[in-house]
Request: fold
Amino acid sequence: MSTPGTLRRNQVICFALVWVSYCSTYFLRKPLGVVKADIASDLSLSKAALGWCDTALVLPYAAVQILLPSLADMWGPRAVLSSCLGLAGVTTYLTYTMWGNSIYTLCLGLALTGGLLAPCWPACTASLSSWFPDNRLNSMFGLINTATYSGGLGGTALAAALLEWTGWRSVALPPAIMAVITAIVVSLALRTPAEKGVLVPGKATQTAQEKIDSLTKSQSLLSLAKIPCVPQLATSLFCLKFVRYCMALWLPLYLLEHLGYSKLQAGMFSTVFDIGGIVGSPLLGYLLDKYYTSTPMLGVTHTMLGGTVATALFVITADWGFVFNAVCLLIAGAGNCGPDSILAGSVSMEVGERGGGGRGAGVTSFINGVGNVGGMVEGPLIGLLWGVIGWGGILPALVGVSAVGTLATYKAFIIDKQYRNAVTLPT
Reply:
């Protein structure tokens, strides 16, 4: 039996390692959105070709999560996270240096990086979920997702500064070093409660046979898609990530070309969306655990509705100046990024464990993978829209996509409510 001090110490270690690890993945992703204009200039690329760079990064990411959802269950979170993160650091560095001389090798490097980063989030969710009681998971995932937007903010700011001072081919070295060092520390220090001999109170446990059965079931993608709420949550994640990837990869270019910001200003100001995520993610997790204990999907629906309205206001007030831009982007970031972390984390874990027979990590990977298809199609679609109708038609389209995601989340809430009512009815 473990002491409270031992449990708390191991929880802190796990949280810190997972936070830094996932933050590092965004330092590896973010430079692409900042250096697009310079890549296009150096390699003579069109906006549509730049869109395919987005796809090269996100397509393998989504494919690996959908087709191989149980890597963390089979090999363990530590092995998967440390190996994939370290190798992704290496491929990122090669992409912007040795492989950055043509669109083909650039896309190859981005594809390798995306495929290697794909198992990192499921491994993070599996590790974090194992150390904390079920009634605190919303708060923990809200806090851990500050890594997403801290990494996004830090990665964007670092890339913008390096671009300004030394050129776009230098943007990958610091993030690559950070990823490799983090991977080494994870391989040495990240452990499961079973490995440490620690009992976590408030955790539903599985027998050995149940664990074997869950691993067997999780190989069937069709069975994952049939679990109640999974199709709706996947649709919602698709919409959330479509909007978020567009903001991450195209907002600096929009600020540069349409609103007349300088390169440094565009790169730095685009981080306001990420700052909204940093604030919104832990706040939403806290509010869900306090006020939406049994109905987290309803709380997420309300938050997404607020994010949709804020995005619409950003469209309307885009030419009104810095203050209006900043306020709308801050609220939109909170309304998009907070729900992303909860739906792709604690909610999908609960749905998988409860309705999927102990397949929390598999369901999380599947939902997040389908969601990342939104990031995959975002690149070429936004590039196409820009060529046909310009920036004026892109932002209203984002509002529509955000609204669809809000409706999908509300539908998942209705299904979840019916399921909960059914299982609590007296026999």
